[in-house]
Amino acid sequence: DSLRDAKEAVVRIVTQGAFKYPDFGTFEETSSGSGFVIDPSGIAVTNNHVVTGAAVVEVYFSGDPEPKRAKVLGVSECSDLAVIDIDGDGYPYLSWYTDPIELGLEVYSLGYPLGDPEFTQHKGNISKESASVSMTRTDVDNVVEHDAQINPGNSGGPLVTDDARVVGVNYALNTESNQYFAITYAEAKDILNKLEKDQNVLSIGINGDAFVTEDGFSGIWVYSVDSGSPADKAGVQAGDILEEMEGITLAKNGTMAEYCDILRGKSDNATLAVQVVRYDTGEVLEGQVNGRELEVVGMVTFGDDSSGDSSGEGTDQSGAEGTDNTGEEGDTVNGQEPYYTEEFDGDLTNWQTWVVAGDSAKDYAEVVTDRLKFELPNPETYAYVENVAFSYPDVYVEADVDTIRGGDNAFALFCRGSSDGWYEFRVHTVGQYAGSWEIYRFDANLRAQGKVPYVRLINNERVFSTDIVGGYKKNNFGMLCTGNELHLYINGIEQAQPNGKIITDNTLSEGTVGMGVMSFSHGTVDMEVERYSILQP
Fold it and tell me: What pLDDT was estimated at residue 234?
């Protein structure tokens, strides 16, 4: 009943499972989210997307280095809620806020963002009493909008009042507009009662992600299927695309809206006609959930203009066509003279690797066939490579980067690295924030104090750019540090804040340069760097 003690009932949830991605097969992955206990017997609430598809669920309480096992009792795909049962009993728990939710109500986001084992708390207010948000993984009707900051990893954590009563379950964010969303008790109460009794609600048993391609082909990519679920019994497999349900084309706007509207109009055990495209084979299958099994009724060819291939395969979208970015010795790159160009055809004598988040004993980067390969097998890993040969006050750095596989990930360039920190340009090519970038100052002093060291340097936390080639494609990223100005380039095009201003900061004046790769809510990430140039501005 006090905010000070609330962290005792908030948990970090770590899951392991197998997920299938287009073109890259099935991978075992570990991911992290948050949750909170609502009953002393160990009943806890989290998001469906935190635990769906997991084979193993482990729970960490604040200050406890050893996990406790938990089992999933029930999930709701469309309401993005799940109930788990933690081994043992006698746990501290949180109560719900049942009063009317009013604008300006002071609230706090609690949880474990970015996989950090340290508990975090952010203060804010309710900015919208009722909102409806449709996303690629869920479609929730009754939510509140607030400005108590959340990040990936806060999913499933509580939004509480100053006396620790739960206003809602944090589940979504739009960092471009600084909006954060929580599922209200009014939405959750009836669903949670069913979930506690081992009943799934608004769910057929898939871990899915809605998409729509440029040519209008849409559907729900199935990463995994819960064993014994209605989808499993119908014959739906990981790697399938759920294209139609009850004769309705799904994900026409790239969200779960149609899928969830259909489920809301049916009973939990209703028979539903479905059409599935099996991506690996090109087979088109039809059948029923809670009815007859899927059967092959036709074929589709991926990779041509008419197929609606969600992978983008067969289309050159590199964004660098007609631009000479070879970076050979003596050439200019984007009109600038190189100090040094690394094409990774030898050892990494001038380079040093280190880790901000993850296993500091591991080396996540190595030279493979004239490329520097980053391989991050676990989520919430931030691995960096630094060129330690020289220090630069003003410098331009540039890299050609291939995203090979993985879920939510990002590539980063940095400049002016020192014991005080560095400036970092981070770009997302695959995952929830694909097509967006951020700019940070890493503050080493904040890290020493146990605080989040990444200080955002733009008003909008994340900026979406049409210049980024999303998916498993090649991009060219550049960063210019000159004076107090930071200029960012994507495929040769300079980026700016939405208001058109140049990004400035006076904190750091000189240091080393380098790059990094981050893995967020999904597991294994592979990125390869063909060339890294350090250039005279």
Answer: 96
